[in-house]
Amino acid sequence: MSAAPASFEVDVGKAPEQLLVERQQRVSDALQLKKPDRVPLLMGMGYKLAEMGGITKQTLYENPEKAQELLEKAALRYKPDLIFGHWHTPKPSMAVGDRMTKWPGYGLGPNGSFQFNEQEFMKAEDYDEFLEDPADWAIRVYTPRAFSACEGLSLLPPLGMWLFGYYNILINYQLLTIPPVVSAFEALYKAAQHQSEWLNQAMDSAKRLAALGFPPFTMLSILVEAPFDFMSDTLRGMRGIFLDMMRIPEKLLAAEEKVKRFQLKYAISTSKATGIPFVFIPLHRGSDGFMSLEQFERFYWPQLKDMMLQLIDAGITPWVYYEGVWDQRLKYLAELPKGKSVGSFQDSDIFKVKEVVGDTMCIMGGMPLTYLKPGRSPAEVRELTHRLCEEVGKGGGFIMANNVMELEGCDEDLIQVWTDATREFGVYSD
């Protein structure tokens, strides 16, 4: 790679329509392990938008027009190839009395940061009923535990009774008029309305960004989890599932198979319906620090690998966020088909990642958030950016991003140094 003119001079005079096409091609080439014209840059702005606008994080959620205005301002200033703002909206969670998330203004102060409040919503003794009929257990047991406004669903008869046709009307329909049941369905309807409203805002945001020359970011649209993480995150909790590995391993493995199958049905059907060819898989408990390699080989990797292979066979590109450190597990990732997945790495040695899986998957990440926090020097940021472009970007297949997809607390000027340096040092000369 060779040095190029300063970033703000690189795309001068180009119309938004041209920039849109060039950015889409740049990202597409990197995803296919090809060498684009320069290293693409992805920016997850997150709560940095609130800091830049001098507003609270709660206001960021409550005023989507202001949030969009700040996102567009950031896009035009930093000129990334892909950009997205803050995560989702608390309104659906508020409607159903969500006990597993906390948001600014909902469970947290107006400037708190989103938190996942992991709890043991599924007990060890629930495995048998879960395995017998996960759908029935989800509606009548799990949902009332996890969402306070839906506790009335526990009064419903077994869902299999709907197969009893007219006789089910005769013996069970009156239960749908019981006030707690009515309240539960009303809460679900209200949450659905909020979710629909948010989706419309997201689509409008994508159109406005496209008009400015920035491609829609659809890679977060369809989300599934590694079967082990699915059982851990929203059901058993960390303590519960680690006890399960020791005490009831066969039941845990059977449950993982169940959740893998219906997640695949969901992901593949949603991809077909929307035309979005990506599925996002954030990984939480499979990293070096959470379990031994022996446990990883039994409870985590076979299930995750099979899920990814089935998605790939369906024409879908898994975008996997490898949270934590995966240095000891990189050899497993090298088993995946070449050029068929994307890997974002949080705290792994990104240079070792390039060495082991650089020919297997598009690598996303590289810039630690700590380098963009106040106290670092512009020279340090430029030096690391240069090295990332030269070594991780070598030969293509690399998308520059920060390691947590969020820029809360970062220095605006250091962010500028980073984005400028990516365009300066990321140019491919041949």
Any key phrases for this structure?
alpha/beta, 17 helices, three-stranded mixed beta sheet, 430 residues, 10% strand
Describe this structure in words.
With 430 residues, the protein is α/β, with parallel strands linked by helices. 51% of the residues lie in helices and 10% in strands. The chain is built from 17 helices and ten strands. Strands 6-7-8-9-10 form a five-stranded parallel β-sheet. It has a three-stranded mixed β-sheet with strand order 4-3-5. Helix 11 runs antiparallel to helix 13, helix 12 packs parallel to helix 13 and helix 16 packs parallel to helix 17. The chain starts with 6 loop residues before the first helix and ends in a 5-residue tail after the last helix.
Percent of residues in beta strands?
5-15%
Unreliable stretches (pLDDT < 50, length at least 5) are 2-8
Helicity level = 40-55%
* Shape verdict: globular
Q: Largest sheet, order of strands side by side?
A: 6-7-8-9-10
Per DSSP, the total helix count is: 17
Largest sheet: 5 strands, parallel
**SSE string:** HHEHHHEHEEEHHHHHHEHEHEHEHEH
Number of strands: 10
What would you report as the Rg, rounded to the nearest angstrom? 23 Å
Oligomer: single chain
**Terminus-to-terminus distance:** 8 Å
Structural class per helix/strand content? alpha/beta
Mean residue pLDDT: 96
